[in-house]
Amino acid sequence: MTSNKKLNWGILGAARINQQLMPAIVAAENSELIAIASRRPNAAAETLAKYAPQQNNVTIYDSPEALLKDDNIQAVYIPLANDEHAKWTLHAIEQGKHVLCEKPMALTVTDIEAIESAAKKNKVTVMEGFMYRFHPQHVRVKEIIDSGLIGEVRSVRSCFSYMMQPARHYRIAGTIEQGSGAMWDIGCYAIHAARLPFYDQTPVAVSAMAKHIDSGADISCNGIIDYGDGKYAHFDFGFEHARRAEYEIIGSKGGLKCHNVWAKQAETPVISWWTEAGQQCTETLPLANHFCLEVEHFSHCVLNELQPGLSLADAKQNCLVINATLDSIKLGQRIKI
Ligand SMILES: NC(=O)c1ccc[n+]([C@@H]2O[C@H](COP(=O)([O-])OP(=O)(O)OC[C@H]3O[C@@H](n4cnc5c(N)ncnc54)[C@H](OP(=O)(O)O)[C@@H]3O)[C@@H](O)[C@H]2O)c1
User: Fold this and answer.
1) Does pTM top 0.90 for this prediction?
2) Which of 51, 55, 101, 135 to pair with 142, CA 20 to 30 A apart?
């Protein structure tokens, strides 16, 4: 069953990432931005004026609690700090709201299990906001793998890094347990992408190492997820390196590379692949806005009672690998999953 209706959205905080998400909700044809909340005076109004100045009918709330009581809001986007995600996702679910929560959905698997059971009880849809997965380039990657062109996937390497600007240092000012540091900021992406070609397989162990700074936050990390039978997914990420946002997949007959994974909207998506038989190809895909595609997908799923493309099972699996990685770093050991 399809619907021409729009989903009414509220935003639960005046975060910087609204620069991307707010215009995406406004632009999505099946979505209507009707409210935003902030606990700081004027911050919600300023965010609205900055990122969606043409929107006249958006209600401003001075707390997330007040926004969640608005019966006209069907779905909320949660862009709060990482250690507030689980708590506010649960509050929103209890108020009967569908939830698109920024990555990472939670810092522990236990919290995601609580979210899963609350969502089931309240019959709402909840999705972790890994927006990059809604870029069509990853559909093309899956097509190439499924076609058998590169053979059986044996190895993956994903990298996400850039030099952190001083203005963003607040993101590494706390401890890992508080949701600060490179792992919760960009490592969760690198691990998510490294798991991508092994979507139907369960990891058996993780080994990793990291550099930490005085606050207790990690600032760079290298790790390997062991999928058994000699299949490995390597990931590295950090805030002390030149920008890289890519993954490479090596199969038994060839390989492919996705060059701009966490692409900025103006970056041309490029996938290159090769085979042992001597074929080589570089494919350039059309530009796409993965934030807008993410919002449209979520609204479409809610309006049509469909399961979203990113499941809570996937969120749990990612969180499990992240926490095994953190344990491996802390203990200096390979951690079985
Ligand atoms: N998908 C992506 O591409 C992407 C990119 C960046 C970040 N993220 C994720 O999005 C989430 C938000 O990240 P962000 O960097 O946008 O967060 P941020 O600007 O630090 O905002 C997070 C929350 O902190 C509060 N806040 C903001 N500025 C503040 C200030 N100056 N003083 C006190 N409180 C302040 C706001 O809540 P109130 O309005 O209620 O005060 C806001 O909702 C994180 O979970 C992050 O992992 C995703």
Assistant:
1) yes
2) 101
